Amino acid sequence: MSISAALVGMALPHVDLAGHRSRAAVVEMSTTLSAAQSRAVLGQHDVIVAFDTLAGTVRVHLDANNDGAVQTTEHARLVQVSEGIRFSRGAAPAMALGGSGVTFTRVQDGLPSVVFHRNGSASQAGVVYLVPGGDGGMSMDVDHVRAVEVARPTGRATCLRVKDGAWGESC
Question: Fewer CB near the terminus (10 Å): N or C of the chain?
Fold first, then answer.
């Protein structure tokens, strides 16, 4: 038993918790965006995803009447971003679509948002950057920064990470 405890004690400092959190968060965000796109196609109405960067939540709004406003009769749910994850690109290089934590310029209720249309397309291309850390991610190692990029024509959400100084696919 003491041998097992010694092995665990030696291995534990080598577990990359920030890396695991980053990977889990980017997969969760990509899945949320892909599910919103699928819901728009299946329901044949707009689905608006709004990002509350301060609260660390994502609101998925099924806009049944396509008016862009959340009505009491329409379903909207909140998705909490993983604990310890912030909307930020930290020290990673900015992509062409922008460098803020969420680059979508459309706004719903004061929050940056993207609309998935019934044909599967998105209202605009954009990026959601995710980084672990309680300080807004500004001091985090670039290896832990992840992003989800949404393509406008297809609405496809792609997971990205920095590798060898450049952004590339990660999921």
Answer: N
The verdict on domain 17-169 having CATH code 3.55.40.10 is yes
In whole angstroms, how far apart are CA 89 and each of 30, 85, 123, 147? 16, 11, 22, 8
| Residue 93, helix vs strand vs coil | coil
Which is it for the CA torsion 12, 16, 21, 27, positive or negative?
negative
pLDDT score for 31: 97
Give the Cα separation of 82 and 85 in Å (integer). Answer: 6
User: DSSP 3-state assignment of 29?
Assistant: helix
d(CA 126, CA 113): 10
Q: Is 167 helix (H, G, I), strand (E, B) or coil?
A: strand
* Ranges under pLDDT 70 in the chain: 1, 4-18, 134-140
